Amino acid sequence: MAAEKMALAKAINESLRTALDTDPKVLIMGEDVGKLGGVFRVTDGLQKDFGEDRVIDTPLAESGIVGTAIGLALRGYRPVVEIQFDGFVFPAYDQIVTQLAKMHARALGKIKLPVVIRIPYGGGIGAVEHHSESPEALFAHVAGLKVVSPSNASDAYWMMQQAIQSNDPVIFFEPKRRYWDKSEVNKDAIPGPLHKAVVAREGSDLTLVAYGPMVKVCLEAAAAAQEEGKSIEVLDLRSMSPIDFDSIQASVEKTRRLVVVHEAPVFLGTGAEIAARITERCFYHLEAPVLRVGGYHAPYPPARLEDEYLPGLDRVLDAVDRSLAY
């Protein structure tokens, strides 16, 4: 089958459709995922084609949604839960971190909970409060959870397949402002490992590490830096737990400089862990300290100010210049 160009949201829809079609134990649950097809229409048409028993419109009760998914997983199902917006996940936080993440260890490996929790996350869409959060570090901190985020349609399709097939719970962060970005998807391809980072652009002077919505910004920064004679490598992390430190290390040993970029606040963000680990691993290779670019340690602002809050091209290029100045 030839590759097909599709939007990231469409790729997730196609991936969910494939999973529903091939495994009768796969269920989709969430607020407005059925008749409406989701706020972003990611699940559009699935209830119509697979029925209300497979694509289930739930009450507005995130804790109940996740708790029900845990019960279904205990009975052998593979629920895919949608949290409508990132900031709505916190009523379910207790269920996720004290039950979903812990059951495998609590049962000494005898019980598995193959639950996927889809969370549209990040800013850039002009939304109101609680609709533009980036809480990935909160979940990556919890042992027992896998945490991933695609940056393009092909990864969205294949990473969703792999997440559903995983016997461990997966938090699947979807970069909502990239839902309409299109790229090639080959449904016959053989995907790489779910938690393997990918070099999105090769370079020799500095490594930019990003995931989800910031990969595109970093690729734009690398293209802009190229015009000034700077060769920037962009590494798409794809997974925030576990983190592919080996791939980051290999890149840094080549470029000797590292800047980590994410939308979430810099303070205690994913970039802090990467900076600490790479400093330990690559101390004698680094020619500059590891720098981090991200949001501010403040509540997400009103929509008219989010361009000032979110890291953009200028802030990434400023970090590149500071690193290369050492």
Automatic annotation (TrEMBL):
Keywords: Oxidoreductase, Thiamine pyrophosphate. It comes from the Bacteria. Residues 6-181 form the Transketolase-like pyrimidine-binding domain. It is an enzyme of class 1 (oxidoreductase). GO terms for molecular function: oxidoreductase activity. Its EC number is 1.2.4.-. This is Alpha-ketoacid dehydrogenase subunit beta. It comes from Streptomyces lutosisoli.
